[in-house]
Amino acid sequence: MKKMKQFLTAIMAAALVIAAIPTALAAGGVFSDVPDGAWYADAVEYVYDNGLMSGTGATTFSPDTATSRAMLATILYRVSGSPAVSGRDSFTDTDDGAWYADAVLWATQSGVMAGYGGGLFGANDPVTREQIATILWRYAGSPAAEGGQDFADESRIASYAVDAVDWVRANSIMNGIGGNHFDPQGNATRAQVATILRNYMTMDQEEPAQGNRILVAYFSASGNTEAVAETIADTLNADLFELVPADPYTDADLDWTESGSRVNREHENEALRDVELASATMENWEDYDTVFIGYPIWWGIAAWPVNDFIQSNDFSGKTVIPFCTSTSSGLGQSAELLEELAGTGTWLEGQRFRSGVSQADVTDWVNGLDI
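Request: output the structure for the sequence above.
Response:
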């Protein structure tokens, strides 16, 4: 953790050397393209206030713009105090004297970043999610991390990044992006990088945070519940676990207006509601203290695919918070019935969200829980 401690102690120095930051602005509520209540708003304010990132213009942050490899090298170089470097890098696609030259030289000499091979560094290339995980992992000294739940796209993670991805997930630095996918080759936007850096800076420095780990488990039929689950996970830096039926529902299956559709048959015949999930348990289940359970309301009760998850896990010692989405129905007895089915755990009062609920409304509810 030596690298991590150096990272933290250098933060004040970093704020002094980032001359490009406009001094007249503060991030909170000033960047015109960072809406109040956006999942990344607090992170943008944090990285701005601590001199980690600046705006792209007088009043813009450009949250959806990809972060280049040169930008990330420069961020880490400045946070490290912009140490003196000597020599030249060996890349054919970098320019001597460029704004990123010292940062790239430092990053490669220190082993934090490497090129692509063939003499290329890719200074202007967007940094991918697996690259930023690896870069931060190397910066922290390549610490060991036990592998937890695999991402649904685990096989797409490059071999060089596997340990790093395990580490960033175990330390709640990076989470999935929905449907338990990591999207390793996806570009890391400036909003994502701001959030990742904030998580990295505020993580437990002595050992991975293990108290009050939060899981958001959800079944989503039309995407409404998934959207709420992702907002909750982003707000609390929680892990996501999608409950996917072993025999997935098609659009035709979900058409409740069609008398012979699957959901109608299951509704009419309770014996058909025993829907098996592709995965109902997690290897690191015991690590979670708080579990959110999300589902759509079907005929006044929780959509029955969540039942397999409830019955397959022991909720003893866990705080359970149900939430649902519906067009018109309320929460009803859905939470009480799930609690009865579980038989264990401390269940809090649930929350119903209308279809298309705003992120701000979900975030306000989550913050009001005082977790």
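The chain has two domains: 2-202, 213-368.
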